[in-house]
Each structure stands twice: as structure tokens, then as C-alpha cells.
Design goal:
By secondary structure, this protein is α/β, with parallel strands linked by helices. It has one domain: 3-Layer(aba) Sandwich (Rossmann fold), CATH 3.40.50.300. Helices cover 51% and strands 12% of the residues. It contains twelve helices and seven strands. The strands form two sheets. Strands 4-5-6-3-7 form a five-stranded parallel beta sheet, sandwiched between helices. β1 and β2 form a beta hairpin. α3 packs parallel to α6 and α7 packs antiparallel against α8. The longest helix has 16 residues. The protein is globular and about 65 Å long. The structure holds adenosine-5'-diphosphate and magnesium ion (MG).
Length: 247
Amino acid sequence: MQEYATFCECKEQKAWKRRFKQSMIPDEFQKANFGNYVTDTQYQREMKKMAADYVNLFRFDTDNEGRKKKIIPPHNFGLIASVGEQRLKELPASDRTEIKNQHNNFGIGKTHLQIAISKILLKAGFRVLVVSDAVFIDDLMQAKRSGDEGEQLNQLLGPALEADVLIWDDIGKSKWTEARETMYYRIINERYRKQMPIVFNSNEDRGTLADKIGYAAASRLIGQCSDEKYKFLMDAEGQDWRLKKHG
Ligand SMILES: Nc1ncnc2c1ncn2[C@@H]1O[C@H](COP(=O)(O)OP(=O)(O)O)[C@@H](O)[C@H]1O
Ligand SMILES: [Mg+2]
């Protein structure tokens, strides 16, 4: 722990912490951590275990010359829906409510757990970037149109491509357009090539996520969630925490 503390003093890490604070994470997640994530149901227990196992893959090693080296797993970690939003929309209205209730994916703590992951990793000294899909994609599209020879766009893309781990909240929220699909591919493929992880959650399922972000991007994103040893993808469902709390 002492070593971590020294490591995080560096100026660059402070900049990533500042960026985290400015990343428009809603107030309700200020206090979100592993400790206050309630695990009453099997899904909650599995989600939390998967998140904790994932965090444990990030470490620091010391090389022969005593230099610290980050160990960053190549795996992505995803919490998605079993019946995605887009699929629900296509159902006849009479079936929609029932299926939606049976397989609810909203308010089950996906963002809570992933913000918890990001806090631990930031504190440990990793460069973490949290983006929220709708805002991030809008900003990228606007930057792309800005006609400044890519300056604004590069400012946004830089951190997303360089972060040790990119936390992508609500991926696939935005409506599909060809330009957006190209942007998803660019970021996801670049990180895939460098074997740099993405932690994501979505209200879409495996199929509808591909419709939203494109097949090439989705297959890389989801394909990286597992290898022979690990599986870090879950179609999670449960009761909406916000509705439960308010009766
Ligand atoms: N198991 C849980 N324990 C404690 N708080 C929870 C739990 N599940 C959800 N919450 C809280 O409920 C709210 C909605 O959760 P959120 O993470 O936004 O869900 P999702 O991203 O799955 O839609 C947040 O304030 C979150 O902190
Ligand atoms: Mg969420």
C-alpha cells in the first residue's frame, strides 16, 4: 500500500484523478463502492464477485532493476442485458411489459459496481477514464464536425485510447448512425489491438448491442471478455433498485 501511495503522487496520475472528478458521474455514485453494494440475490453476488475478480487482475510488479511495472489484463469486463432495449422495442406492446419485468436490466447496480472498480484502480495508480455513452459520442461527433483539423477530436480520443482502462457506461445508448459506428470501431479496435481493457455496461443484449455499435466493434468488445481461464461477461438482471427504494 505504501508503494502505491508513492506511485500515485506523480503529476500525471493527478491529472487522471482530476479527469475522473470532472467526468460527469452523477452524484448518486459519489459514495458507490464495493462495501456498500448489497448482495441479496444470486445475480448481485455474481456481479460483485466478477467485479472483484477483475480488479484483482490489475497489479504492480517490480522488475529486476527495482522499477515498478503495471500489470494490466487484456480482458474486457461487461455487464449487459439478456433482453436488450432495442429488442424490447420491437416486441408487440402486449408482451413488452411482461418481458421487461421478467428480465429487468435497469437500476441493478451495473454502473455502481463499475464506478467502484474505477475508484480502486485510480487510487492504486492506474490511469482510468470513465465515459458515459450518450455524452461521449455526442462530444466526439461534435468535435469531428468542428473543422479544426481534428484538434478537438484528438483531445477527446487521446485519453480514451491511452487510459490503462476505459470505463464505458451505458454503451450503445446512442442511436445508430454510420458515423457513430465508425467511431465505436475506431476506439474499440484500437484498444483491442493494444490489448488494453474496456469495462462496459449496457442495456442492450449481445445481439442488439451489435446493432447499435456495429458487428465488428461488438465482436471485439465481447470477444475480449473471456479466454480459456476467465469469463467477464454477464447478462445481468434483477429488480430496479430505484423503484424498490421508493416502494
Ligand atoms: N445492490 C445494490 N446495493 C446498493 N446500491 C445499489 C445496488 N444496486 C443498485 N444500487 C443503487 O441504485 C442506483 C441505480 O444503480 P445503477 O448502478 O445506476 O444501475 P444500472 O447501471 O444497472 O442501471 C444507484 O444509486 C446505485 O448506487
Ligand atoms: Mg447504469
